[in-house]
Amino acid sequence: MSLTLLNVVLAVFIAICFVGANAAYLVWCERKGAGFYQRRPGPMENGWWGLLQPPIDGVKLMTKQLLIPGGVDKAIFMVAPVLAMFPALISFVTIPFSDNIVAHPIDVGVLVIFAFAALGGMSLLVAGWGSRNKYSMISSVRAVSQTVAYEIPLLITTITIVMISGSLNLGDIVQQQLDGFLSWNVWPLHKEVGFNLLMPVSFLILFVCSVAETNRAPFDLGEAESELVAGFHTEYSSMGFGLFFMGEYANIVIGSCLITILFLGGWSCPFGDLGIFPFTHNVGWFLLKIYLIIFVFIWIRWTFPRTTIYGLLNLSWKYLIPISLFNLLLTAGLLKVF
Amino acid sequence: MSAELVLSGAIFIGLAIIIPIVMIMTVMLGPRSDSAAKNDPYESGIKHVVGHADQKFSVKFYLLAILFLIFDIEAVFMYPWAVSLRELGVFGLIEMTVFILLLLTGLIYILKKGVLNWR
Amino acid sequence: MSQPIELQKDETFVLNVGPQHPATHGVLRVKMTMDGEYIYKAETVLGYIHRMHEKMAENRTYPQYMPNMGRLDYLSAMAFNHGYALVVERACGIEVPERAEYIRVITVELNRISSHLVWLGAYVLDLGGFTPLMYCFDDREQILDLLESVTGSRLTYCYFRFGGLYNDIDDEFITGTRAFIIRMRKELKMYAKLVTGNIILMKRLQGHGIIDKDMCQRYGATGPVARGSGLNYDVRKNEPYSVYPELDFDIPVNDGCDSYARYLVRMEEMEQSLRIIEQALDKLPEGPVNPEKKPKLIKPPSGDYYAAVETARGNFGIRLVSDGGKNAYRLKLRSPTYSNMHLFDEACRGMLLADALAFMGSLDLVIPEMDR
Question: Is A152 part of the contact surface with chain B (CB cutoff 8 Å)?
């Protein structure tokens, strides 16, 4: 790759635009989706079908007062929203959108994403602690125990995939799923492991975990508004809140990218490479898949009531972790036998 | 390789500049007004709250946090094993099976002890 | 489920839930002493929306006080109208025409359904599910439109008059109500499918927020809260008033004692209200809606009078002491949620915050009625 200043600036610009536009317009999608499920139109006033709503909201957030309450730990308080947004954006560096669109194909890409995801969980702790607010305090304790509980099944499920592919590089993992949708890791039938019935189950585990890791309903216990007002971002106004908000959506995109890459064959065409344009392995398929998953995220959010913190922890420690460990052993055994 | 490093480094730096700029712009664009009530930490509109948020706080999840440490380290051990499973062969598989079974026993023990008993 | 967790008193802190908190649905303040996320004790603080309704009764004439009833319980204002009309009619010995009685029952039951719909939506919202609220408010809107066409207002009704009603209902109202009954039956089936059977909802409600029969009786809890604890008490059946004895309906009672039992009782009550409305519409007689003979000035003879009605939340009792003057000498309102709320402290001890707030929602609190 020839490296000129222009290239670098362009790459940075594209990366940030993609993430920013995604975060902004997912809010619009979310509100439209909510409207769809609730028999109402959703935002309609600004622009055609409310399409101008996200930039207008952004301007509104920017011109509001960034209130720093008296008792807060100022440095921590200001760092937290940046910490919420930053790791989510950084993770995009290693995500392969297609075989040649990737900012930096790191060999341990999976681990990089997990490392930054954990940092995102940290921002909730820091925000709750820095706010010096009792609701935020409870919320941050909850958020940490939740992030911590769901990281383990997430890691272990990913190990299963890593084992099959023999690589931690996200690009390599996709390379092995390019022969049509039957070669995707989500199916029990796999050329490496033979027949493993638990694969769809571990896909579900990964999905549940990414819902929990992104603090989305029904696992949004950190910001359970009927109990903790707004949880960790109770004290945040203006863009401080805006960054948390965008960070959440950026995290959703990361989560669905990860699911797509690990289980749904990344940028591969479901019918194999047919050689005619839409049916080749290209970035369009990747985007289609991640937006489908995001749609399911929104669907779930507007359908289910919230769980409780103990229900959430029980689900992880009593079911998800043992199942994913068992699946790991099973896959390892099958990999040997066949 | 170095080109890619520079590129991702540039993205890092770009983000590190842009996000604080957004925050600073907000501070500059937004109105500034202060009052005692506005500066209070929010607690459902109660002015004179009892206690402070950074007082001693009973966390019931601390055992789970310790449990997390154990499992997280376990997962870190597993990654290199998973990548090189084919080279390690049956020996590696048995080793890891024993390791995971030990951990599962620990998990069952701690569940029986009632760490996850809530009301 | 398991042995109770021991709470340490020395590690508690005080958390104010309310007056400005999303879970309290109004300006109620609950001062919770918490140990981590467990509630050690909860103290209810009232007075944030106190408007001296009882004192106002002593300074206003009887007809002037009628609009106050709509301001007490904004969700089932009609039943409160009924209670006040009932007590003054008893005191003055005013006869109510049959048609007016039936119309009263129809409007009160419609109002009961709309109140339960608000509760259902807000309750699931408390549990974190936003969508049912929109569906419930859509259905409620139909009721409000119907009631608006006859009463002129949408929320704080002042429809009842001593001995009769403000005005008669028309055919449009009757056909509209019949259409609504058909629609509502369908909607209730949908709620049963979408909300009642939801696994997360069931897990959060079943076995949580237990109040037994004994506790209900000690605190004087009534309405769906008592009926959810197996206590078969409903003013409409136990101390019948108006034309309720002539109508055939059941009082849903559930022995579950938990939040889910109270939930089911309310869902069943909506069905029963639909039955009542259907029968009342069939039996609706012709005639005037106001008595021919009615005293020009309402001046009850001196004495002590009492009337109770079943509102959407329970027994609303109203005691009137008259000295023969134009104003009441003393008017005591016994509102249902005031009693229902006070078992909260005893019942929620040792509960997790999330469960306690789910429990509070199942009590169906309306703050202006509690805090008169």
Answer: yes
